[in-house]
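Pasting as-is:
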Amino acid sequence: MISPLAYVDPSAKLGNNVTVHPFAFIDKDVVIGDNCEIYPYASIMHGARLGNNIKVYNGAIIAAEPQDFRWKGEESYVTIGDQTTIREMAIINRSIHKGMSTEIGKKCFLMAETHVGHDCKIGDRCVLGNSSQLAGDVVIDPCVILSTSVKVYNGSRIGKWAFIKGGCRISGNVPPYVIMAHNPAMYYGVNAAVMRTKPELFTEERIDDIAKAYRHIYQCNTSIFNAVKRIEADVDDSAEKTEILNFIKDCNNKLIALPRLDTF
């Protein structure tokens, strides 16, 4: 299953039933799990740790050296979860910190020409659209969709089940379950259409409560402090309510696209 026209370093560890196509490059200190497929001209550089059932398409580079002047050659890693797909020309950079890892979760789909910077943490079941670009230290929670050509700036966080429309530039924290659109990025409602595809997780009542919470945050012309108080009093308790409030707390009340009164 390994083409004689591919280069596989003798020290690389490949699992069972791995296919390596002609002209692929697999470096030293690489671990590839079972049933993976590495397409022509893909490069798996040292420090890559791939799970099972992963596909890496033509021209993609996994565990590229970080593009950060703080990196001084420290040994670091990229970890990719099971059943993730990396499409053509995608680039994933290693961590800049010794022993640390850039992390991609399970069942993710990184489309063509995506870029994932050093020390990013991408949760399970995320989709990164064509030409999406993540700077360093970005955190993306599970089940997030980035549409085509989204740019996410250093240190930003995107909450679970958020949808970022094409061409958006994200510089800050996007709370869970929302849609962001335009430039500068603006709140565009809750991600109801996608959540309705999972009725076992999101009932119509839960979706209505999520929308009510975000009306307090984005549509009542009040501060985030007052919006949180209103959510606590006005929205029924649920896992989604807790997720929203915990996200805001973790981000020190700093969300993007808030009204100007968010200065309290």
